[in-house]
Design goal:
elongated, 281 residues, 17% strand, alpha+beta, 7 helices, single chain
Length: 281
């Protein structure tokens, strides 16, 4: 009798173990699928449907976007800023039922999101989904708007333009790093200037230049980035400055239609283009 009970217990535990392993495998498969494919969200607009994929390696932006979608935050909002051959932008809560001449673009949920800029993994290619933000002067950390986002259309550029753009970007990075070092040594610089020690001042300048050159390399970019910008288009001048956290997987024809609508001097469409609803697929 004791043997039978032990056998029953063993069989019960074994069945539990099998079910547990199977459920874990299903969860693992689901997790792998999500990590590979990303989360899909459908934006139903007055000009058609757009489906976007949210990247899993920008989790702060992904989770915030999903929360807003679940809360119905985007339902009824306008594409308040539309620029042909550049991008379409939405997410300002003040655009809901806004008067025709109302200035839009400064609204949000009352918070910003830490930047998750991952360039060159994610870049402003044709169809990219990225977070809007305020400028570097007031937002040096490049934190994202809590709700506003844009979808890139952009335009193609030549290979020569692409190479020149990379060179300019590298020069900007060098200058930014050098300025940072100067700020760190500002007291020493002022002291040397006041004492009139031009030799040591020049010695320090050369030292900062050398440190800048050693720390700011011009990294070659993956070939697919040049390919995308020279054949499909995008907005490469935004790369490294804004968080790209997804892309359009269906409905770029709708995005194209929206970017072509007539707009006023503030880039707001004359006839409202609205997100009717947003839902997670």
């Amino acid at each position: 009798m004791k043997y039978i009970n032990k056998k029953l217990i063993f069989l019960t535990l074994f069945a539990f173990f099998v079910n547990f392993v199977n459920s874990q495998e299903l969860d693992l498969k689901k997790m792998k699928k999500e990590n590979t494919d990303g989360v899909l969200v459908e934006l139903k607009t007055t000009m058609g449907d757009i489906i976007v994929k949210l990247y899993n390696d920008t989790p702060l932006h992904r989770d915030n976007f999903l929360k807003l979608v679940k809360d119905g935050y985007y339902d009824g909002l306008l594409f308040h800023r539309v620029i042909d051959s550049f991008m379409i932008q939405t997410g300002d809560p003040e655009s809901r039922n806004a008067e025709p001449e109302k200035m839009l673009g400064s609204g949000g949920p009352g918070y910003t999101i830490e930047a998750e800029i991952d360039y060159p993994r994610h870049y402003n290619k044709y169809g990219a989904l990225a977070a809007a933000r305020t400028g570097d002067q007031v937002n040096p950390e490049r934190r994202s708007s809590g709700s506003q986002f844009y979808i890139v259309t952009g335009r193609t550029i030549s290979e020569q333009q692409f190479d020149k753009m990379l060179m300019n970007k590298h020069q900007e990075e060098l200058q930014a790093y050098f300025r940072k070092l100067v700020n760190q040594n500002v007291d020493t610089i002022k002291s040397l200037q006041q004492s009139g020690d031009t030799a040591k001042l020049e010695e320090l300048r050369q030292k900062l230049i050398k440190e800048t050159e050693e720390n700011v390399d011009m990294q070659p970019l993956p070939e697919n980035i040049k390919q995308d910008y020279t054949t499909k288009g995008g907005a490469p001048h935004l790369d490294g400055a804004y968080t790209v956290f997804g892309e359009v997987v269906e409905g770029m024809d709708v995005v194209e239609k929206i970017q072509k609508v007539e707009t006023n001097s503030n880039d707001r469409p004359i006839q409202d283009v609205k997100i009717i609803s947003a839902k997670i697929l």
